[in-house]
Design a protein that fits this description.
Layout: E1 23-24, E2 31-32, H1 49-68, E3 74-75, H2 77-88, H3 93-103, H4 110-123, E4 128-136, H5 144-154, E5 157-158, H6 166-180, E6 199-212, E7 223-228, E8 234-251, E9 255-261, E10 267-274, H7 280-286, H8 289-298, E11 300-309, E12 311-314, E13 318-319, H9 321-326, E14 348-360, E15 364-376, E16 388-389, E17 394-400, E18 406-412
Helix pairs in contact: 2-3, 4-5
Length: about 425
């Protein structure tokens, strides 16, 4: 897969991942599937935490797609959201108000805190590994109330670090990220992202998932098939095949949707395949948290033939500041930012970095991501921007079935690029 020049760090799987499939022989033995209780705490009337996470997922992905619509764009919105939510916990005044509008959550909200903790506990018991850590400059005194929230609800560790040697500091944090993602996310934080004098705090989230298909593809049935890219180029790509199998499926006038479940973890991949005459740009503009929720609820079991390309995406480190600012998070990236709820003189956000990985083959899916929020006491506020037949570009999501949370999402424009 080609690397995407986006400039961001993030990676966690919670409710969304993308993949493509080819279907034929529909409308046979349709059976309605029933949802299960998710065992998560109730959310306050004015806050639906799943919609907050998924709503943010579609907003940030839509912004990034404007720059990377010709590439295979893959992120973990859950990872980005979690890192930003930890930062938001210490925001005050105008900074907090703008972050609230983008993240759609309220501070000091017990329901949201219980939701975050429940997800953290649930995922780490069901085939997903996710971890949070704060890296304050040695000598920076984090407020105890803030530390208590991070430890209690986010399971975050506090790891004081010496930023006077940027190479060593970035190496320590990158080693932590690499370890948490089983070696899939390496060198996410470049040395020049750390200022030896002014960097005060880095907040990190990492997520890793390796799932085996509930119904595996047989390697003997994988053959080269044609795939038409976004720019109408035809390429040959190894394509997996399953025939006559029951999966949750639905369609409307502009797309088909298929759910491929993983075994033993209540996670699934949801694939949205645009129909002829529609493309990924149209698809992305239709997606929001309500559409995603209604889509998953409307699916029913159907006997299908599935054709899905094997693919692997390794992203560069994305810089997310531009996209978060486009969504309305402006003050947090300026010297007037108020994060006094974290620590005195912690400064403002210099950059948000994100990096992700996904591999899909006959056995299942491996995905990982990491996000880092880099804070500085003084710096230059720069704008650096670092049938169901999947034979054409498609989107894919990896999501948690019980909660509906999107963990990863992406699109494939050319499965042969690597």
């Amino acid at each position: 897969m080609k690397l995407f020049k986006v400039g961001i760090i993030t990676a966690i799987i919670v409710a969304s991942a993308c993949t493509v499939c080819i279907l034929t022989g529909l409308n046979v033995d349709v059976r309605r599937s029933s949802p299960e209780d998710n065992n998560l705490p109730p959310i306050a009337e004015n806050l639906n935490a799943v919609d907050a996470v998924n709503g943010f997922a579609f907003k940030i992905y839509r912004e990034m797609f404007k720059d990377f619509g010709e590439d295979d764009l893959f992120i973990s919105p859950y990872s980005i959201f979690t890192a930003m939510a930890m930062t938001y916990e210490g925001a005050k005044g105008k900074t907090a108000e703008e972050m609230k509008e983008v993240l759609c959550i309220e501070q000091d909200n017990e329901s949201f805190h219980l939701y975050v903790k429940s997800l953290y506990d649930l995922f780490n018991k069901n085939g997903i590994s996710t971890a949070n850590a704060l890296w304050p400059r040695i000598g920076l005194q984090l407020l105890q109330d803030y530390v208590d929230v991070i430890k209690t609800y986010y399971g975050g560790d506090i790891k004081p670090i010496d930023y006077s040697d940027p190479a060593r500091a970035s190496g320590i944090i990158n080693d932590w990220i690499e370890n948490q993602t089983r070696g899939r996310i390496k060198d996410m934080i470049p040395q020049d992202a750390i200022d030896p004098v002014y960097t005060t705090l880095i907040l990190t989230n990492a997520i890793y998932f390796k799932g085996i298909w509930k119904i595996k593809f047989d390697e003997k049935n994988t053959t080269n098939r044609s795939f038409t890219t976004q720019d109408k180029k035809t390429v040959q790509v190894p394509t997996m095949c399953l025939k006559g199998v029951y999966f949750n499926y639905t369609e409307n006038e502009w797309m088909q949707a298929l759910e491929l479940p993983y075994r033993d973890c209540n996670l699934s991949m949801l694939i949205i395949l645009p129909k002829k005459g529609y493309d990924l740009s149209h698809t992305i503009n239709q997606l929001n948290e309500n559409f995603f929720s209604n889509l998953t609820k409307s699916m029913s079991e159907c006997k299908v033939n599935v054709y899905l390309p094997k693919f692997e995406i390794k992203t560069p480190t994305y810089g997310l500041k531009k996209y978060l600012k486009n969504l309305g998070m402006l003050n947090a990236f300026t010297p007037s930012a108020n994060f006094s709820g974290i620590a005195r003189d912690v400064g403002w956000i210099d950059e948000v970095l994100h990096k992700a990985f996904v591999k899909v083959d006959e056995e299942g899916t491996e995905a990982a991501a990491a996000t880092a929020v880099v804070m500085m006491k003084t710096s230059i506020d720069s704008e650096q921007v670092r049938v169901f037949d999947c034979d054409h570009p498609f989107m894919f999501f990896i999501f948690h079935k019980d909660t509906g949370t999107i963990l990863f999402m992406g699109c494939v424009n050319d499965p042969t690029d690597s």
